[in-house]
Amino acid sequence: MSMPAALAEVVSDFKAVNGQDKLQLLLEFANELPPLPADLEEAAMEPVPECQSPLFLHVDAQDRDHVRLYFSAPAEAPTTRGFAAILAAGLDEHPADTILAVPDDFYSELGLATLISPLRLRGISAMLARIKRRLR
């Protein structure tokens, strides 16, 4: 599986825990979602309607060797925030070609399928698909 080291580390962290501890780890990621920079407003970001909760993203690919990813999700949506934080931690500041090489189903390696509904899991897939679409 082709993943940057930062994303592979996140996947490894999830593989190292079992059951409800995976949900706790997802919540920890949700709490670590970086805030938006002062010059970026949610209204200027792309919505991701496939997510169960409101989620907005912005892909800054002006420097294709150093892509910046920004996410906005309400605190009341910890699963969505957790998914966004995983992508931020694993892909932010990486080259466009590296991000484009990430398998579309990498999230299956997190082991959350038995704990989170397929509808919710579709959210992380949609986020990655939109990021890749912007980079193409």
From TrEMBL:
Chain ranges passing through the membrane: none
**Domain Fe-S metabolism associated: start-end pairs:** 12-133
Which family, according to the similarity comment? Belongs to the SufE family.
From the Swiss-Prot or TrEMBL record, give the protein name: Cysteine desufuration protein SufE
Organism field:
Mycolicibacterium pulveris
